[in-house]
Known about the structure:
By secondary structure, this protein is an alpha/beta fold. It is 33% helix and 16% strand. Strands 3-2-4-5-7-6 form a six-stranded parallel sheet, with helices on both faces. The protein has a five-stranded parallel sheet with strand order 10-9-11-12-13, with helices on both faces. Strands 15-16-17-19-18 form a five-stranded parallel sheet, with helices on both faces. Helix 1 runs parallel beside helix 6 and helix 9 (246-259) crosses helix 12. The relative contact order is 0.12. Bound molecules: thiamine diphosphate and magnesium ion (MG). Residues 477-479, 505, 507-509 line the site of magnesium ion (MG). Thiamine diphosphate binds at residues 106, 422-424, 445-448, 477-480, 505, 507-511.
Amino acid sequence: MSEAKDGPGAIERPALANETGDYWGSDTVALMMREIGLPYVALNPGASYRGLHDSLVNLLGNTAPQMLLCLHEEHAIAIAHGYAKVAGRPMGAIVHSNVGLMHATMGIFNAWCDRVPVVVFGATGPVDAAQRRPWIDWIHTAQDQGALVRNYTKWDDQPASVAAAAESVLRAHRMAVTPPCGPVYVCLDAALQESRIGALPPLPGAARFKPPRPAAPDPAAASEAAGLLQGAERPLILAGRLGRGQAEWEARVAFAEALGAIVLTDTKTGATFPTGHRLHGPPAGNNPGPEACALIREADVILSLDWVDLAGAFKAACAGEPGGAPAAKVILASLDHQIHNGWSMDYQGLPPTDLHLPVEPDRAVAAILPLLKPRAPGWQGYQVKLGPLPTLGTGDTIAPSDVAAALREAVGARPTTLIRTPLAWAAGFWEAAHPLDLLGGDGGGGIGGGPGMAVGAALALKERSGGSGRLPIAVLGDGDCLMGVTALWTAVHYRIPLLVVVSNNNSFFNDELHQDRMARQRGRPVGNRWIGQRIADPEPDLAMLARGQGAAGFGPLRRPEELMRTLRAAIDHVDGGGVALVDVRVEPGYAPVGSAAILRGGSA
Ligand SMILES: Cc1ncc(C[n+]2csc(CCOP(=O)(O)OP(=O)(O)O)c2C)c(N)n1
Ligand SMILES: [Mg+2]
């Protein structure tokens, strides 16, 4: 094998045989992966798919799809997850039988909860026991491997023939990219992969197996929704899981402006509406803050554009209200009910809904917008005043808000994608003026996915901009970073520029707060809350862990005045095509949801 690491993406190019000779079962799967347009397959190798691995390298030449070698299967899935969040299309991931899939499960769960398409391939030892090699092939074989992930994938399959495998790949891809999107799993029998099939059978083309065209809402329902919104005095839009397209972004702005509707956005789901717009409401963190709750109570029509956990938002806002629900008429635009199952409760509570448009939420906006007539703007006498963005402090220690302030200053006006933010980060620390400015959370709350998602998103940003556009930045908690830190090797290896800033409180601090609550509730010593939580003695050297993988490592930084110079140096390194990690030691503490005030009739 010849290796070329100089070109973009550092593709390891194999020496190909002039004649491929006979074809093998896995060749058809590899060709189908190309047919459905997977640009990459993130993987960690394993003998259970050595047949497929050979096909990808020696038949396809490690291109379309190109392998992305990962040091852990959880990274492979997280990279695919982050990639799809930016690119809007999936890449593949391949995980070894049983054990590889077991490593991958948390990432698959995160992608499921985040409704992001990932096409996961796996393998089993030969289903035909007579064909199993002693010991290891038996360890590789399970009766129903898909059972490991069936509860949080949209579909799984274990095709029993080459023809069935071709169809399976087509179906898997279509299932993954059809909204509500999600991960799928195709398990390939090692014996099927390694069977000699002679001539290549005719393979189906993807063109006749496209995903369904998105549906528009039923016209009667769209006009009913338009009527409700048109007649509302205080229309409130909850902008949840929405597309990253610029046209859809602009349609949402036009929609809110046509109504004078206030728009709430959510850190779980990334940028959906310009945060600097006069109609942007108080920032919402993982739950709506007090001012957002007040608007939910005071609205007379609420339109949820696939808001994650609408029932939870209503509960937070209206627990003390009659019926515990908002008085407003509730319009829901969401397809999410189609993906709910009886295992994972990520579907959240059941929100009261007066009118449900079962379409992609951006389609609902597109259908209702032309029906709106000129009218007086909503929320007469109201004004939402957002609190100031954080400024860099001059104290002896660094607060999480200082990290945000310094990053904002270091980045300036330059287009930047904030791929991730840590738990200690408040909504309202960062402005969004473009759908790619913020990418939101991990979906399932699985710590350790942050570095992988950062690498995958950075890869898609590199592709998108030809390497010269958006600066990819992930701000990670130290716990999240440490669990997934070897994902950075993949970024270094494939020349994917990325800046990781660690908001490092030397703790799984979220859970210190839980122990704090428990101790208070029980009248026990709160001072012990750090035990079993602090990541100290020794403090992991994150910069060294980055350098150990070929990235540039900066820090630990402990004083605010060190931030600017170091961040600028790290950004220079990223601009040169590198991966940089800056370890910032921050005071433990969570910033509250960004502050805002609602002025009613001119008074606060
Ligand atoms: C895989 C996994 N294990 C444990 C948890 C529980 N958990 C939630 S937040 C958290 C702490 C994360 O630490 P860090 O990333 O440093 O963020 P911090 O809370 O310190 O800001 C933990 C352990 C989880 N969500 N996922
Ligand atoms: Mg921490």
